[in-house]
């Protein structure tokens, strides 16, 4: 009798193991191949209708799944969509996923490898499957303030980050759009909205221009020339640089003019302090011609140019400085040294470059994600600051910082000043067309203990408008972070 009972238990246990194994295999281990099977037409619809995890800022959802009365039980809802469109992206049945919705899709859907036991528990308890929450590093008040600084109808981007951790505190751009248009269950409504939005210039449909759009960086690139000069051993803090009104080139009818809005024309020779305070062109063009293209390219790459691997965790457009494979002639190298010609950078790259100087030469991995939590609020991932690269030495970073402080105290970035705080900054004015420019400011504060980096670009504006929308707005952002 006991043997018969034991045999029955063995059979029951074997059947349970077989059943459990089959469920586990089909639902978890074979899920990827089944989901990717082109014959599985229901998978996308099923995922689209699931209770996807929220994207949070300051504990409040900026993207969440809300229950519906239709066959599709949940619909994605975006709160403050214009403010966050460039970061959240969208989750659309017709047009796929972008932004954080795409970069963190496995966590938000609850299908990541480390969520196995959560899925098993949900399957056996009958609980409605629910994804994990993703909390961003964004400061909601700072995000709103930065967004308000870009006038409606004027394209522009602002990046605010912590140079010591790489955490992105604010990242905004205009024009923006309502991401809810992409989340509708009505395919025709989504198609019309999509066709309308992709036809609008400068709209950040697939990611914020702050990390997806390239601009000529202009004179903010001179910080890289300065680092290359000091590291070369050919220059030091006391070096005197040639500062002609125009830089001529043998054999061609072309001259590179100096910057005409500062005091550059008052001296034929300049110190680094004077050249940076007034953003003179010819001294930095001369440095590049002296050091050569390879040296400037290598320095640019040490600060993140030509690196296609950066993710925040969204993929970032690669900023570019011409490499040795495409040799520049002398005018081309001179123009590149002042951030023109074919040099292109995202606002995020300029913020990263600036953060490296602020952080003693260490460039931190930029990141938008603070924490990932399970539905029962267990933290499974949190931001751990990581050094991305050593861009320059602490000594060079300190010297450049001192000169950047002088640019704000005595030079053309005076609008970024904050009473009682040492602010380090650099402006840029990259000529585009029709007397318009890409107006830049980048800098950090306090200079002696950096807490925040601010980078602003306003493309295709006149000089006066650019000056009004960059340095003074940077001052307001510094004050907001430092509570001044």
Automatic annotation (TrEMBL):
Pfam short name (any one): PBP_dimer_2
Residue span(s) of domain Penicillin binding protein A dimerisation: 52-134
Transmembrane segments: none
Penicillin-binding protein transpeptidase domain boundaries: 156-482
Superkingdom of the source species: Bacteria
PANTHER family: PENICILLIN-BINDING PROTEIN 4B, PEPTIDOGLYCAN D,D-TRANSPEPTIDASE
Protein name: Penicillin-binding protein 2
């Amino acid at each position: 009798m006991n043997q018969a009972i034991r045999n029955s238990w063995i059979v029951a246990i074997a059947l349970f193991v077989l059943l459990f194994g089959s469920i586990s295999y089909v639902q978890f281990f074979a899920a990827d191949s089944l989901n990717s099977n082109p014959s599985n037409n229901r998978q996308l619809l099923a995922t689209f209708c699931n209770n996807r995890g929220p994207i949070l800022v300051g504990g409040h959802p900026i993207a969440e799944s809300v229950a519906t009365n239709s066959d599709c039980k949940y619909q994605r809802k975006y709160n403050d969509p214009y403010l966050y469109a460039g970061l959240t992206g969208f989750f659309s049945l017709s047009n796929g996923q972008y932004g954080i919705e795409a970069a963190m899709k496995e966590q938000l859907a609850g299908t990541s490898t480390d969520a196995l036991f959560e899925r098993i528990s949900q399957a056996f308890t009958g609980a409605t499957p629910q994804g994990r929450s993703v909390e961003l590093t964004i400061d909601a008040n700072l995000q709103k303030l930065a967004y308000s600084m870009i006038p409606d109808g004027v394209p522009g981007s602002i990046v605010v980050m912590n140079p010591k951790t790489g955490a992105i505190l604010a990242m905004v751009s205009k024009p923006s759009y309502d991401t809810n248009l992409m989340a509708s269950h009505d395919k025709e409504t989504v198609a019309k909205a999509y066709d309308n939005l992709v036809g609008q210039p400068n709209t950040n449909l697939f990611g914020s221009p702050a990390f997806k759009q390239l601009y000529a960086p202009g004179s903010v690139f001179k910080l890289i020339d300065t680092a290359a000069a000091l590291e070369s051993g050919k220059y030091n803090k006391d070096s005197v640089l040639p500062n002609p009104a125009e830089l001529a080139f043998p054999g061609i009818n072309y001259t590179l003019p100096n910057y005409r809005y500062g005091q550059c024309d008052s001296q034929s020779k300049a110190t680094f302090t004077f050249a940076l305070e007034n953003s003179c062109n010819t001294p930095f063009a001369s440095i590049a011609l002296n050091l050569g293209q390879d040296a400037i390219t290598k320095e640019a790459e040490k600060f993140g140019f030509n690196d296609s691997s950066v993710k925040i965790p969204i993929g970032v457009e690669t900023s570019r400085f011409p490499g040795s494979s495409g040799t520049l002639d002398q005018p081309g190298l001179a123009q590149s040294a002042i951030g023109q010609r074919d040099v292109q950078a995202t606002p995020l790259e300029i913020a990263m470059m600036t953060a490296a100087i602020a952080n003693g030469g260490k460039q931190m991995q930029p990141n938008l994600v603070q924490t990932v939590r399970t539905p029962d609020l267990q933290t499974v991932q949190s931001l751990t600051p990581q050094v991305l690269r050593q861009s320059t030495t602490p000594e060079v970073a300190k010297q450049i910082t001192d000169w950047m402080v002088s640019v704000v105290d005595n030079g053309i970035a005076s609008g970024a000043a904050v009473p009682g705080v040492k602010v380090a900054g650099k402006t840029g004015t990259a000529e585009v067309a029709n007397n318009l420019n890409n107006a830049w400011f980048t800098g950090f504060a306090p200079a002696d203990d950096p807490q925040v980096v601010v980078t602003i670009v306003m493309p295709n504006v006149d000089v006066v408008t650019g000056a009004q929308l960059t340095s003074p707005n940077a001052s307001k952002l510094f004050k907001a972070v430092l509570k001044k």
